[in-house]
Amino acid sequence: MKSMLIDSTRCIGCRACQVACKEWNNLPAEKTEFFGGSGYQNPGRLSSKTWTVISFHEAETSTGDYDWIFAKQQCMHCLEPACAAACPVSALEQLKTGAVVYDPGKCIGCRNCQLVCPFDIPCFEWNKAVPEIKKCNFCVDRIEAGMEPSCSCACPTDAIVFGERENLLQKAEIRIANNPGKYVNHIYGRSEVGGTSVMHLAGVSFDKLGFRTNLSDSPVWDNAKPAMEAIPYVMTGLGTILGALAWFINRKTEIKAGKEVKND
Amino acid sequence: MTKHSVFQGRFIFYFLSAFALILICYRFINGLGAVTNLTDQYPWGLWVSIDILAGIALASGGFVIAGAIHFFGGHKFDQLYRVSLLTALLGYILFLIGLIVDLGRPWNILHVILSGNKIAPLYEISWCVMFYTFVLILEFLPILFEKRKMV
User: Does one domain contain both B53 and B109?
Assistant: First the structure.
């Protein structure tokens, strides 16, 4: 599984990744407003035209000072993606590389992926007659050509590192162990909703950086599992019972009424 | 039946329907955002629940009556059969029209059959909608044909 490790303590908030993302994916510029999001971040949040945003946060660091702390918002490319599980037409699918990608040729535009995504990532083109769901595709074309995603390629401080998931997990553990006090002891994305391909390290607790910290470690689809797995049995069971009952009751009425009902 | 049995206030509904048709045209030209004010944070509107409440709830009566007659020999309901069946069919047609407007790309709906994702709850619901509509049309066909003396 290809993965990405994003180290918030190394990020200087230059947003080269945002620009690189727009350039590589041919995304148009957005009309933005100052203070449209939290603090100085710009644009305010992800949209169909902006697949990654560096969010700006003012938070208390471990030394007791207040500081700008930056976090990168983008698709987390879950190991067991809720969007792909909930899509009725398999328009969202996980590739072997770990990238979760979208096929507009299948999409019916139900927007269920937006509802189920625990990270609020997929965006819909609300003002188009032929709309699509838009989100980070992990630069799947670059990965398949043996390159790294454009955002990690553009990062000047190596805050974004691309590689195999196990190596990155190891790297993250070493960073936490070798720098006591610098990091909170948590790799965001290691186990959240069953693990994600995009993982984060930070110097302050993740809820201060806009991350959801109330997520369970089991995949989102596990909530639907009991109901969905019962359907085939309920359907065949109910069909058989009702069919048998109907045959029995109708046969009884037929016999009671004699031959005239038989031709009805 | 007298001529006056048709609801006199129906012109209000004609007007509402015409207005809705204009809005639907506007929606298919300018996108869902132009008429709904939905956002990425609120991708499903309240109208989804109202649409389903009205359409599907109307249809449930038809299924219950038809089930009682066909499965359990409840022939004392025979007089209710056609009325409830018509209501059910209208309910599902209403629901389908609502779906066509609500779905962003309704022309891809056949992909539910072609490339359906069998673990998705919405896949099951899509099949229910298609299957129930099909059953309702099948049940309703004899009523259409008997007037033309085809059965």
Answer: yes
